[in-house]
Please model this.
Amino acid sequence: MDQEKPHVLPHRAHRKLVAKSKTAAILEFLLILVMFEAPLILFGSRLTFLMSSNVQNVLPEFTYANSNVVTFNGILKNMYVFDSAAKYPSVSFSLSVASVSILLIVLAFLVASYPARFWIIYLSLLTFFSSVFFAVMPDRFPYSLKMLLELYLNIQVSVWIFIPVLLVGAFVTVPLGLASKILAITITELYSFLFGFVRYFAFIYVMSKFSYIFALPGYFAFIFVLDFLYIVSAYSLFMVIASGKLSKKKEKWKWAF
Model:
């Protein structure tokens, strides 16, 4: 005689998580949001000062007589930016970079696999268009290093503010402890701080050492795309860990119908 199972667990194809009450979800959302956003709004400007005031310590070989740290009002009041000279490319350098970009595009089609091919072609096209611009009309370039760095800092601080909003909105319905969600957001923010600092110094180095040609690929390949990728990666990693933990907790699941 077959033995009856004392409890039938929902199959993964026919189950869903037990919904959290709307009140609890809203309170958790607001609590985590205030924990992260309040310090960012209050002290975000100090982070830009820390970044800008340490440029000459990190890049001492690019210390110019007229280099200094100045304030500007961006997404936050009294943000700080490093103000210095940068390098305009010569026509010969611009044409050389354009030629290398075309060569890389051709090689990408012939040799590279799909993911690498996409990145090589994307970066090479951006660099090619920038090179042609500086070869033809360098005097029409409307930005200084200070203006480019102001734009970068506004974008970076916006990302720091945006990360908690996005992740807490995604995490709030997941029935895991508050500490797990706070830890995941904290790790993502710390990574963003570190990456933002390194990228800031790298932009100054590249535009001072090699010229403004690389401003366009720098912004459209190493800011927007990479920020999107690591935020999505942080969310994906959290959900993988969460699903592993929740799969062992039968009280967190119910039948989907």
Q: What stands out?
A: The two ends are 30 Å apart (CA to CA). The mean pLDDT is 85. The longest strand covers residues 68-72. The beta strands are 15-17, 68-72, 79-83, 253-255.
